[in-house]
């Protein structure tokens, strides 16, 4: 049975890089009918927050990355790590190190001065020295002194690291809290993880972890390290490039299915397919097609995908999603046209929920045209035609076809070209020149409102 996990450290929001790693792990488990486990690596007591745990859970829920087991919290498992660390000490595979911070700083300083790479020199490794009083020791792992570590990375291919590059890492701190490299091994073992899929910022940790697996006599999971995400300028994706938090995309009006699709395509491919459903992703996903080189985040492509998903989404669902944006703008839809119908009319031109909300406002409250628009379109030449239109609209049964007939009749009667009439009409009723087809727009806004707005604006025409 395939078992994958996502193991975030709760030190901030869920960023797109983490979300993509989670998505890949999730998709791999789903594809193979396996299990996806969520584990919160909260051992960095200073930087971990409950708020961040919540942000991660919210982000995963929004993206639909449901886990089968967990969330597990490492801080609830410290006794387990302590027991295993103790066991390793008893087996002579780990040892207590009493070196103080000052002593270790001095050691590194001396190494640097000699032109060496700073590393722990093993001073307590097989030491018979009497432990100094008053120091809480850390436990260090006895990394093998020679030989090398090799694994066949599911994404990067074979990787070999020489053991003399690795020093004896701390596995348990003085306060009994495990370090990342130790906690992760014990958990991946206890949780029977078969595939460790994670960001390639951890690739240097993997040989250290493999040595711990070996010391425990445990079989290795498979490892796959996913290349990082870059911004458009080739630098590592960061706040400088715009939104990096998953929930920020929700707040900017993206649909979760668009972000999921985009993140899946970011560094993984299935032929030339750009748009695919969650089901297709599950069916197609594999580790072999994860790119070995970093992916570049392209906000325009994400926006394009969002637009595609907006066009096909259920309009009642969209109405529910757009409502909070309107509410935040202080725009009430009560007494106005049905929001789903407004959205259906607007969506061919919108690429986000935010844009839909902005474009929907004039259906619910008048937006005063700018002075520039009024002076451009409110001309003496069309005044009579618009007054005539107002009268004729008053007389009809309000529907799209009848509105269209009347507009055409007025254009004919006054020997105008269609835009000559339609543009000022748009400006009068919507405050803008950018609207969907005018007959459909007027129909939805409603007879009474259209006539009232026209009357008010007709007064502003030059005599
Ligand atoms: N807590 C680590 C991180 O957030 C997890 C790395 C791993 O997946 O092993 O980077």
Q: By CATH's scheme, which homologous superfamily of the largest domain applies?
A: HUPs
Count of runs of 4 or more consecutive helical residues: 19
Mean pLDDT reading:
96
CATH architecture tag of the largest domain? 3-Layer(aba) Sandwich
Topology:
Layout: E1 3-6, H1 16-31, E2 35-40, H2 50-63, E3 69-73, H3 78-90, E4 94-97, H4 101-113, E5 138-141, E6 148-153, E7 157-162, E8 170-172, H5 180-190, E9 195-199, H6 206-215, E10 222-226, E11 229-230, H7 246-251, H8 256-265, H9 278-284, E12 295-296, H10 299-312, H11 315-328, H12 339-346, H13 353-360, H14 371-377, H15 380-395, H16 400-413, H17 418-430, H18 438-445, H19 447-458
Parallel strand pairs: 1-2, 2-3, 9-10, 11-12
Antiparallel strand pairs: 4-5, 5-8, 6-7
Helix pairs in contact: 1-9, 5-6, 8-10, 11-12, 11-13, 12-13, 15-16, 15-19, 16-18
This protein binds glutamic acid.
Residues 7-9, 41, 184, 198, 202 line the site of glutamic acid (GLU).
